[in-house]
Amino acid sequence: MRAFIDFEASSLGRHGYPIEVAWVFEDGRSASFLIAPIDGWTDWNPAAEEIHGISRAQLAREGVAAPLVARHLVDELAGHQVLASAPSWDARWMSRLLRAGGLPRHAIRVTDTDAALLELATALLAPALSSSQVHRASRQIMASAGDRFAGRRRAHRALADAELERDRWLTVCRLARAYAGLPADGRVARPPAAPREANLLLHPRAYPQTSLDRPGAEWRAS
Q1: Which of 11, 2, 5, 56 is nearest to 34 (CA)?
Q2: Which of 102, 120, 199, 207 is least surrounded, with the fewest CB atoms within 10 Å of its CB?
């Protein structure tokens, strides 16, 4: 199963450290922790605090010991694909958290959500479309999903932002299934017709919740 992860950090400087982590599985199960800093984690940027709103005092009151968080994270996420919107940063905070727990820093690897979303759309479309049509359709689906989240700002809190990544995943999955003629449960609703340009046009009345109505796109009512 896939899990979507997000970290908040004390600063983006060389000596910054993770102060909050949360993950959400595809099925909606989630976990979130404030992380109590270990000895040596002292770099603190007031500008970062203004963004995430987590204070040092709150970490002292509510933070869970970093080694405990690290071990729980590995227990929960080992064997799953872990996705993040900013994989280079999140992998950095992941590494520091795991090392604080005495665990291998690559025990959990982080994958770019955007790359995984494109792979998802391609995989769902491939059985129904030709290879050239899959490439174009998958890009259109990504653009449509992007439009739907354009006005949704990140909260800069780990759980809310991890849930946003899950919502993006579910949206691309729903759009791609509708495009390919698949129901939500993954079964083929009807045998795919021979690829024709007309088959790429989603009828909004057929898919009321997932019609790809991006302005200017080629999807239109037939």
Answers
A1: 56
A2: 102
Residue spans of alpha helices (H) in 158-198:
158-180
Angle at 114 between CA 112 and CA 118, to 5 degrees: 120
Asked whether the predicted pLDDT for residue 139 surpasses 70, the reply is yes
- DSSP assignments along 93-123, one per residue: HHHHHHHHTT--TTSS-EEEHHHHHHHHHHH
Cross-strand partners of 18: 9
**Residues 146, 117: Cα–Cα separation, whole Å:** 11
> What pairs with residue 83 in β-bridges?
4, 111
Q: Are 62 and 34 in contact (CB under 8 A)?
A: yes
Give yes or no for a contact between 7 and 93, defined as CB atoms under 8 angstroms apart.
yes
Mean pLDDT of the chain: 85
Taking the C-alpha atoms of residue 168 and residue 174, their distance in angstroms, rounded to an integer, is: 10
Report how far residue 43's alpha carbon sits from residue 186's, in angstroms, rounded to the nearest whole number: 48
Per-residue pLDDT, averaged over 115-141, amounts to: 93
| Number of C-beta neighbours around residue 147 at 10 A | 14
The span from the CA of 180 to the CA of 121, in Å, is 10
pLDDT at 69 (0 to 100): 98
The yes-or-no verdict on residue 221 having pLDDT over 80 is: no
Estimate to the nearest angstrom the gap between the alpha carbon of 100 and the chain centroid. Answer: 25
Lookup result for tokens 């984690």: 41
